[in-house]
Amino acid sequence: MPPGSGKRKSSAQKSHLLALQTSQKAARELNKALTTSATSLASKTRTGAQTKALNETFDFLKAENATLASDLGACRMECDKLTKQHTEAEAQLNSA
User: Fold this and answer.
1) N or C: which terminus of the chain carries fewer CB neighbours within 10 A?
2) Which of 56, 72, 65 is nearest to 23 (CA)?
3) How is the chain split into domains, by residue range?
């Protein structure tokens, strides 16, 4: 907990934050792989079979990236929901 923040994170919030960070890292790695594949595909002369394999890999990576982006959005929403619940519970405790 950062000094002066006045808020503690629940274990659920910590778990969701870790999942969010892990998803973000995976998304960055996939984006890097997508960029590398696209650059490689565009800059080199390839046989038809190589181009087909690269296109399939590229399509797979795009689909994986979309899935990770969706998962990341879901993690963010869940984290926001938990943060709101935590804040509301703290407010109730402080007003009691």
Assistant:
1) C
2) 72
3) 12-95
Give whole-number Cα distances, 8 to 1, 52, 86, 91, 95, in Å: 6, 51, 9, 13, 17
Q: 49: which 2 tokens?
A: 């079979």
**Residue range 29-38, pLDDT digits in tens:** 887 887 787 7
pTM of the model: 0.45
Confidence of residue 9 (pLDDT cuts 50, 70, 90): low
92 phi/psi in degrees, rounded to 5: -65, -40
Rounded distance between C-alpha atoms, residue 53 and residue 48, angstroms? 9
